[in-house]
Amino acid sequence: MNFPSNLFNSHSKKDGDFFLGMKKILGFKPKNLEIFQKAFVHRSANRKDKEGNPMNYERLEFLGDAMLGAIISKHLYNKVPGGDEGYLTKMRSKIVSREHLNELGKDLRLIDYVESKIPKSRFGDNIHGNVFEALVGAIYLDRGYKYCDKFISEKVIAPYVDIEQLEGKVISYKSLVIEWCQKQKKSFNFDVYEDTGNDTVKHFAVKLTIADKIVAKARATSKKKAEERASKRAYFALQDKMKES
Amino acid sequence: MNFPSNLFNSHSKKDGDFFLGMKKILGFKPKNLEIFQKAFVHRSANRKDKEGNPMNYERLEFLGDAMLGAIISKHLYNKVPGGDEGYLTKMRSKIVSREHLNELGKDLRLIDYVESKIPKSRFGDNIHGNVFEALVGAIYLDRGYKYCDKFISEKVIAPYVDIEQLEGKVISYKSLVIEWCQKQKKSFNFDVYEDTGNDTVKHFAVKLTIADKIVAKARATSKKKAEERASKRAYFALQDKMKES
After folding, report:
1. pLDDT band at residue A65 under the 50/70/90 scheme
2. Minimal Cα–Cα distance from B60 to chain A, Å?
3. DRBM domain spans which residues (chains A, B) (predicted)?
4. Domain spanning B8-162: which superfamily?
5. CA Rg, chain B, in Å?
6. Which of A63, A85, A140 lies at the smallest CB-CB distance from B62?
């Protein structure tokens, strides 16, 4: 048989790159790489599995959506002991809203791995959230509930789930941080610069300096978002100090 | 202080009875009995926890509902490799339908443990399903995901989730069993009798005999349901035999 000589090498190279990319996103090594590959196959690719069933991320998305709902519910249950069923339900739907999941998927740059016949520029925003859900489904199948819980805690709960902000009690962390600096007579500076890197979409990076010390960095698709994100990080880092004052 | 002398005894006795009841329902020993007790407190009881928050099963119901959704999704994902996202979603909503959950709660006689100020006879049907969901939430908190999965597999998936019947491919197990008996020229008999036991609602029990051998028993709130349930059990017990013929 005449295989092109670089077939296996190029295949391994591609798998190797994918493995490293996943490891970085997940924070752990994937065991069964095939499961994760499936999480990025768009239906337009028209892939089939060995049994002839369509192979794309949609089934994993179904699974991931349900796991995400359960894990977010568990966190809310523990985090808000005084919230009744209605409150918990409302908070959960804010956290797992389409918009929020799309943002998560974008931040992890999941679209870079998507396999499709449609040009990526023609996808709507929902591809980001859908692939994020599929990734959660893949984590569950590959490593079980605990890894899934850990991933969601680190990637969804810690950076995004702030009950006070979700409740609308805190509108802007930037203004909280500025107020605090002014009250404390400390200088502050938001150093914003373009940092698109390998992204297709323009990105901005922010360094937030308070009293000549860098207290937080952040990166997002708009200046405003990046500033707000850095402020939020600074807010939590400085929280104890701010509460004292 | 003048405690009534039997206070602690009667309290322990009540807890002991509850513990045994739970152990029977769950199939394992509850660790933290308080969590399970909470799963049966109706809001009308007006109970508060130490922090003054309302204490009833509604928060556990929120948690259990989400866990149930995730675990059922996982089972469907594994059980139906050829089903697409739309199919899986449809099947899941049939399994976790209000009606289905009410039936589950009734079969486990969960209402016997409900604490409320409203007479139980005045509750609608949904109390059964709501308490069932709260129980799932309590299992999660007490023992974690794996026990939750095991409980749902044994109590929901095994006896109730039959993809073919959910899809409407099998309308009646009773007719399948009768057909088979007639084809095989075997005698059969559905022996139905009233067996209300300690229930408030009338119940019927069925013994299904094929060729003078009891092959299945079942119990339900109507004759028809009990016969169908016994037939389903017989069908699965006899499945290999039936497929051969």
Report:
1. very high
2. 8
3. 172-240
4. Ribonuclease III domain (1.10.1520.10)
5. 21
6. A85
* Cβ contacts from A onto B, under 8 A: 78
For chain B, say whether A165 makes contact (Cβ under 8 Å).
Answer: no
Per the CB < 8 Å rule, is B69 touching A69?
yes
pLDDT digits 0-9 by tens, B132-171: 999 999 999 999 999 999 999 988 888 777 776 666 656 6
Q: What would the pLDDT profile of A195-244 be if each residue is shown by its tens digit?
A: 888 777 788 999 999 988 999 998 888 888 888 889 888 887 777 666 55
Using a CB-CB cut-off of 8 Å, the residues of chain B touching A71 are: 70
Domain ranges across chain A: 7-165, 173-244
The secondary structure element, H or E, covering residue B130 is helix B126-143
Any alpha helices (H) in chain A, and if so which ranges?
Answer: 7-26, 33-38, 58-79, 85-95, 98-107, 126-143, 145-152, 158-160, 163-166, 173-183, 223-244
Residue type, B54: P
Q: What is the mean pLDDT of chain B?
A: 87
B-chain residues near A146 (CB < 8 A): 145
**B160 vs B31, residue with greater confidence:** B31
**Catalytic site includes residue A133:** yes
Q: Does B2 touch chain A (CB under 8 A)?
A: no
Q: Give the residue, B166 or A176, on which the prediction is more confident.
A: A176
Degrees to nearest 5, angle at CA A203 with A178 and A173:
20
In the chain, the amino acid numbered B6 is N
User: Which residues in chain B touch residue A130, judged by CB atoms under 8 angstroms apart?
Assistant: none
Residue with tokens 């499961």: A35
Helix (H, G, I), strand (E, B) or coil at A218: strand
Residues of B labelled catalytic: 65, 133
Give the residue from B73, B84, B96 with the most A CB atoms within 10 Å of its CB, the best one to mutate. B73
Quickly name the fold that domain B173-244 has: Double Stranded RNA Binding Domain (3.30.160)
Contact between chains at B66 and A70 (C-beta distance less than 8 A)? yes
- Which residues from chain A sit within 8 angstroms of residue B69, using beta carbons? 66, 69-70
**CATH architecture label of A7-165:** Orthogonal Bundle (1.10)
Strand order across the beta sheet in which A204-210 lies: A188-194, A204-210, A213-220
Scan for tokens 């969804």, then name that residue. Answer: A156
